[in-house]
Amino acid sequence: MTLISELGTWLHDVFVAQFDAWILLGFVAQGLFTMRFVVQWLASERAKRSVVPIAFWFFSLGGGTLLLIYAIQRQDPVFIAGQGLGLFIYIRNLWLIANERRAAMADAE
Fold first, then answer.
1. Residue 10 falls inside a structural domain
2. Residue 5 in domain
3. Which of 27, 93, 95, 106 has its CA 20 to 30 Å from the CA of residue 59?
4. CA–CA separation, 89 vs 57, rounded Å?
5. Is the pTM for the entire model greater than 0.85?
């Protein structure tokens, strides 16, 4: 068997043969998680400085939650620990943003 055919077999086994709803969820989750970087990059380019828009935290929360569900289903302890801790950080940042907005609205009144 040649290296090319072995690679083709491996790609088929990994990306086609085991494809199911959980793999689909994993790809959707990874897509959401990746979008946070796209949103952050575009906002920074527009501002010509580093910017972290609120959408970054919402994509982080959505992608991180789905990736945690996926990791739990796959029983991957490293992935579970990483995504689980990340969720606390994303929620805390959204909480801080909400508090800041409430304070700004109260000061404006």
1. no
2. no
3. 106
4. 9
5. no
Q: Which amino acid is at 61?
A: L
What pLDDT does 64 receive?
A: 93
- Centroid of chain to Cα 13: 25
**Pick from 63, 39, 59: nearest CA to 51:** 39
| Residue ranges in the chain assigned as alpha helix (H) | 3-12, 21-47, 54-74, 77-108
71 belongs to a structural domain:
yes
What tokens does 50 get? 């580093």
Domain that holds residue 98: 20-108
Q: Which residues in the chain show pLDDT less than 70?
A: none
Contacts of 78 (CB under 8 A, 6+ apart): none
